[in-house]
Amino acid sequence: MPEIIVTTREGEQQAVVFSPGASLMQSICEGGLDELLALCGGVCSCATCHVHVDEEFFDRLEPVSEDEDGLLSGSGHRRKNSRLSCQVRMTDDLDGMRVTIAPED
Ligand code: FES
What we know:
Blueprint: E1 3-7, E2 13-17, H1 24-30, E3 50-53, H2 55-58, H3 66-73, E4 82-84, E5 98-101
Parallel strand pairs: 1-5
Antiparallel strand pairs: 1-2, 3-4, 3-5
Bound molecules: FE2/S2 (inorganic) cluster (FES).
The site of FE2/S2 (inorganic) cluster (FES) has 13 residues, from loops.
């Protein structure tokens, strides 16, 4: 099974197995990490699923939508490798990607 490595806000790393087709947010939450609040349930309206993605993998992701871009612009922790994890669809070629949960705004 493909997996990603998630770094928590405390700096702990955890391997999380994912199913291709799931969102990155679902994968992180189902992997047992509860600090990603994902308050809107994945409909791109809360930004509490903000993560920083391994730059090596960033270009393999689907582009940021206008809605996602608008929400990320409201974050004080936006970086060029920021994504809302509910908007990232997992695929086999993301196996090994490293993701860091962004600080809370
Ligand atoms: S879960 Fe709300 S924007 Fe991603």
